[in-house]
Amino acid sequence: MKYKSSLGLIAALFLSACTIQVPPYSADISNVSKLKEESNTPVSVGKIESEKKLNKISLRGSPLVSSVGNSYGEYIESALIQELKLAKLWSGVAKKQVTGKVIDQDIDVTGFSEGNSFIKVNFVVSEDDAILFEKVISAEHDFDSSFIGAIAIPNGQRSYVELVQKLLKNLYSDEEFITAIK
Predict the structure, then answer these.
(1) Count of alpha carbons within 13 angstroms of residue 107, beta-carbon side
(2) Which residues are paired to 57 by β-bridges?
(3) Looking at domain 19-181, which of 3.40.50.1010, 3.40.50.2300, 3.40.50.720, 3.40.50.10610 is its CATH number?
(4) Vertex 67, ends 48 and 80: CA angle to 5°?
(5) What is the pLDDT of residues 129-157, one digit of tens each?
(6) Over residues 82-90, mean pLDDT
(7) Greatest extent of the chain over all pairs of C-alpha atoms, in Å
(8) Residue span of the signal peptide, if any (predicted)?
């Protein structure tokens, strides 16, 4: 009997430290509507870079990794393309291109009832060799958490989608960005 309970404990500890992935991005309809209202010029999306140290977020010891490619930069690229496509503004051959670099990000699920996350990305819009826009855009997101890891970790995992939705909303709300993509 001791053997079975010890084996169960070891399995539980092993499973608690498994790598988990961010859920697939789900476009925010208000973001898509904002893009449709503001522009009708197609843009392309280039590389959004992300340093290796920013490509793993720890949720109480469980590594959270991007579900797209090998980096959170690729996740943000995919999210941006998804929303631009829905707004009928994406073109793989457009001269105006959005690129960027993830500067900082984290998700904190250590709180007893509330978790929070933040992200900062340096976005650049260029055409040929000219930079039309460059600015650090950031977002924060608060979400329900718990003392219980089985609640806190999945909530933190799901919060990344909403964090990126807010990041893109802040990008699309920047008048200089909108001017650059017109």
Answers:
(1) 29
(2) 64
(3) 3.40.50.10610
(4) 40
(5) 899 999 999 999 999 888 887 788 888 88
(6) 96
(7) 71
(8) 1-27
- Across the beta sheet with 114-127, the strand order is 44-50, 96-108, 114-127, 130-144
Structural tokens at position 51: 């340093």
CA distance readout (Å), 127 to 90, 95, 133? 15, 5, 10
CB contact set of 158 (below 8 Å; sequence gap of 6+): 23, 143
Q: How far apart are the first and last CA of the chain?
A: 70
Where are the chain's structural domains? 19-181
Mean pLDDT of 104-118: 90
Class of residue 81 by CB neighbours under 10 A (exposed 0-12, middle 13-18, buried 19+): middle
d(CA 180, CA 39): 10
Q: In degrees, to the nearest 5, what angle opens at C-alpha 45 toward C-alphas 174 and 133?
A: 35
Q: What is the model's pTM?
A: 0.86
The pLDDT tens digits for 48-66 are 999 888 877 888 878 888 8
